Each structure stands twice: as structure tokens, then as C-alpha cells.
Amino acid sequence: MTVKDYNKAVEDYSNGIYRFILKNIRDQEKARDVVQDTFEKCWIKHETVEAGKVKSYLFSTAYHTMIDMIRKESRIGDFNEVKQEKLAYDDQYSDLNEILHKAIQLLPEAQRSVILLRDYEGYSYEEISEITGLSESQVKVYIYRGRVFLKNYIGSPERVI
Question: Following DSSP, what letter does each residue of the chain receive, concatenated?
Fold first, then answer.
């Protein structure tokens, strides 16, 4: 990859990577740090990264950098630690977007990441598999389980509208 390709990659993908990381960790400063670390790693390996595969490389690197950060901070929680009363939304409230974001944060990290990559960023199962290092069938399983959880958490649209 040339310097010109690297600069184009920064322009083209930095915002998407930032949004993806921000949706997962919900901290602007940490998201900026992950994006910066991602592009630093890309620059260090710019001679071995192919220009045509830079998008996949960047998202994979960002994903793994985020995971490393989360592990360092010991913030990975066990899904079984979630209290049963928090698994369904009861209050009458009309901001479905806020409810959805709250529900997404309750998902296990792996499910949250694949759902965000698929539904928010629009990646194919194959691309998500490359980014996360999971098999394509495991990506599909995580997306299915995450969507089922979101459906059960939100309940019927009549309850929240």
C-alpha cells in the first residue's frame, strides 16, 4: 500500500470505524483511541497490506484492538450476570431508538459486534467472518440469537409506541 492509498483509507474508513467502535464501547475518547491505534497498526504494516483489502484489514484490526481494550479493563460481563428483571422492557416510552440502544448494550460483546456490523454497517456474513475471525455459520448464529434477544427485550411495538 502506498502513502496515497493509506491517506485515502483514512478518509474513506475512519468515520465508519469510529461509529462501529463507539456503538460497542459507548465512550468517545476510547473509540478515538481505538481508531488511532488501528491506523497506526495499518501504517506500521502498510508495506504488507494490500490496497484492495485495506477495509477488511482496518475493521478487523479495530475489532481486535477494541477487544483487547475491553479485556484489559475487565469489562466483559457474563450474560448470566444480567438480572432477570432487566431482560424485558416494561415502561411505556415512545423513544424506540433509545430503548434499542439500551437493549444492544445488554447483548454479549460478540453478539453486539456482529449485529452492529451487519445491521448498522451493512457488512455481509462473509465480511463479518473475516473481520471478527469467527466462522460464517457462527456469525449467523450470533446474529440470530442477538435478534431474538432484542425482540424479546423490546417486546411488541405497541408497548413502546
Answer: --HHHHHHHHHHHHHHHHHHHHHHH--HHHHHHHHHHHHHHHHHTTTTS-GGGHHHHHHHHHHHHHHHHHHHTT-PPPGGGS-GGGGS--S--S-HHHHHHHHHHHS-HHHHHHHIIIIIS---HHHHHHHH---HHHHHHHHHHHHHHHHHHH--HHHH-
CATH 3.40.630.30, applies to 81-160: no
Class of domain 3-72: mainly alpha
Name the residue ranges covered by the structural domains of the chain.
3-72, 81-160
- What is d(CA 159, CA 10) in angstroms, rounded to the nearest whole number? 43
pTM, rounded to two decimals: 0.53
Shared fold status for 3-72 and 81-160: no
Per residue in 65-77, pLDDT (tens digit) is 998 888 887 654 5
Considering only residues 83 and 136, tell me which one the structure prediction assigns the higher pLDDT: 136
